[in-house]
Amino acid sequence: MAQLRHDYDKFLAQDTEVIVIGPEDEKAFLDYWQKHNLPFIGLPDPTHKVLKLYGQQINLFKLGRMPAQVTVDKNGIARFVHYGHDMTDIPENEEILGLLKTMNEAEAVP
Amino acid sequence: MSRAELNKPAPNFTLTDFKGNEINLADFQGKKNVLLVFNRGFL
């Protein structure tokens, strides 16, 4: 999460909003966001509504494949899923930023 | 890190953020890319 905050400006520069979804409640999100001064959108999902939706519809969450990050382009298409190697691993932003840049450039072509 | 290519529509959802704003994924369409981060937990 600290890494995401660190690179947030780079995501903005790629026309990209960062949305974090987690199983905690509103209060836990608020506390965490204030404590760490996080700039992105935080969505509490205590009933796992979205987690289940993504698990079912795009077969996203296999056991032990968390955290996961999904890159969605401007047409609403899920382009890539990035998996961490283990629970503590955060996928490297540079690779995702590279993909976003490529996606944006592809869209800019007439 | 491993990655999987999908090229499928991202399932739409609406959730309320911790500030009380309604966030609808489809609202970003045509405007911004979105990086959805599914977090297992903060602790």
CATH class of chain A: Alpha Beta
Number of strands of chain A: 4
- Radius of gyration of chain B in whole Å, from Cα? 13 Å
Q: How much is the average pLDDT of chain B? A: 88
Question: Which quaternary structure do these chains form?
Answer: heterodimer
Structure description:
The complex is a heterodimer of chains A (110) and B (43). With 110 residues, chain A is an alpha+beta fold. Chain A has helices at residues 2-6, 8-13, 26-36, 49-57, 93-108, and strands spanning 16-22, 41-44, 68-72, 77-83. Chain A has a single domain (2-108), classed as Glutaredoxin. Chain A contains five helices and four strands; from the N terminus they run ααβαβαββα. In chain A, the strands form two sheets. Chain A has a two-stranded parallel ribbon with strand order 1-2. Chain A has a two-stranded antiparallel ribbon with strand order 3-4. The longest helix of chain A has 16 residues, at 93-108. The radius of gyration of chain A is 15 Å and the shape is globular. The model of chain A has no long low-confidence stretch (mean pLDDT 84). Chain B has no helices and four strands. In chain B, strand 2 (14-16) and strand 3 form a beta hairpin. Chain B is extended and about 30 Å long. The interface between A and B is large, with 64 and 36 residues.
Q: How would you sum up this structure in a few lines?
A:
With about 110 residues, chain A is α+β, with helices and mostly antiparallel strands. Chain A contains 5 helices and 4 strands. Chain A has a single domain, classed as Glutaredoxin (3-Layer(aba) Sandwich), CATH 3.40.30.10.
List keywords for this structure.
heterodimer, A: 110 residues, alpha+beta, Glutaredoxin, two-stranded parallel sheet, two-stranded antiparallel sheet, 5 helices, 4 strands, globular, B: 43 residues, mainly beta, two-stranded antiparallel ribbon, 0% helix
